[in-house]
Amino acid sequence: MQLEYFLILAAALFCIGIYGLVTSRNVIRVLMSIELMLNAVNVNLMAFSNYLDPDAIRGQVFSVFVITIAAAEAAVGLAIVLSIYRNRDTVDMEQFNLLKW
Amino acid sequence: MTLATLNLAEGVQLVSFGLLGLIMLVGALGVVLLSNIVYSAFLLGLVFISISGLYILLNAGFVAAAQVLVYVGAVNVLILFGIMLVNKQEDFATVKNAWVGKAATGAVCAGLFGLLSTMVLSHPWTISTVPAAGDRAIEVIGQHFFSDYLLPFELASVLLLIALVGAIILARREYLPDTAIPTEEALTLPEKPRELVAAGSRDSL
User: Fold this and answer.
1) Residue A92 touches chain B, beta carbons under 8 Å
2) A58-88 and B150-171 are packed helices; what angle lies between their axes, rounded to 10 degrees?
3) Based on CB atoms within 10 Å of each CB, which residue in A50, A83, B201, B202 is the most buried?
């Protein structure tokens, strides 16, 4: 078991998350991709915490904070999605041009 | 004997790491690529559970439990509720040359993954040799929360409160329906109209 395995796995998860974030048409899938990316960061933090700083596990503290922020982000994101869905009657990312120039 | 036990434990760890990583990557690809979004949401739960298993492999039982509780129990259920609330079977209008964007994004992601892996593999990590906190981790995390990370901890609680209020304000309907509902109907549940059966009345006999 080595640090590099975990880091490469987290990098793969992060890249899958970026791909989903950019190419998805459904808003909910975009939110799910953001969750995937946050989890990849968490795996990174936990791996560093276990292998580089195992006595004062600061990485675990950071990942608890990240989990907190992710929960808040999911709640607010879904509320925004609901609000847009009520006004626009669609969940297509290509039709959300409210803030485009 | 000790060496054999150690090797056995390492083998078990390696096999479970491979299994969990495989489940995680396949699940994440399913989340991104599947067309049915309900399957995506359930696969997302699978990804979260396998990540929690990876945390257990990394000697972090508390965060693994928090991961299952918060992500699988709250975030995933929230996403499923969101899917149910905005579930509209719509065929998205096709965008011209959409494959160019997908191919470019795929290339960028593959390049980023290559860059990150090269960096990870070439960097000389100085692995610490002090014994891991292990089961004492929850005490250490608590001490961190109430000593050197006290301000971020309190800020996180304030942020959760703000997010709660903001989510309620954003998601609630602010307009009232145009036609006022009569009060008698508003207080009853909608149910099928039933025929009035004169059961037990003496007049019908």
Assistant:
1) yes
2) 10
3) A50
In chain B, which residues have their Cβ closer than 8 Å to the Cβ of A3?
125, 127
A19 interfaces chain B, CB cutoff of 8 Å: yes
Is some CB atom of chain B closer than 8 A to the CB atom of A34?
A: no
Tokens of A43: 């795996």
Return the sign of the alpha-carbon dihedral for residues B66, B40, B20, B18: negative
**Any CB–CB contact under 8 A between A42 and chain B?**
yes
Domain boundaries, chain B: 1-87+135-177
Compare CB distances from B82 to A4, A18, A81 and report the shortest one's residue: A81
* pLDDT tens, residue order, chain A (101 aa): 588 999 999 999 999 999 999 998 889 999 999 999 999 999 999 999 999 988 888 999 999 999 999 999 999 999 999 988 888 888 888 888 777 76
Contact A10, A40 (CB under 8 A): yes
**Beta-carbon separation of A36 and B171 below 8 A:** no
CA dihedral sign, ordered B21, A4, A71, B85: negative
> Are residues B116 and A94, on separate chains, in Cβ contact within 8 Å?
no
Q: Report the distance separating Cα A37 and Cα A40, nearest Å.
A: 5
Give contacts of B110 with chain A, Cβ < 8 Å: 15
B60 phi and psi angles, rounded to 5 deg: -130, 80
Q: What is the pLDDT along chain B (205 residues), one digit of tens a residue?
A: 445 555 668 889 899 999 999 999 999 999 999 989 999 999 999 999 999 999 999 988 899 999 999 999 999 999 999 999 887 777 777 777 788 989 999 999 999 999 999 999 998 888 888 877 777 888 999 999 999 999 999 999 999 999 999 999 988 876 666 666 666 666 666 666 666 655 555 554 4
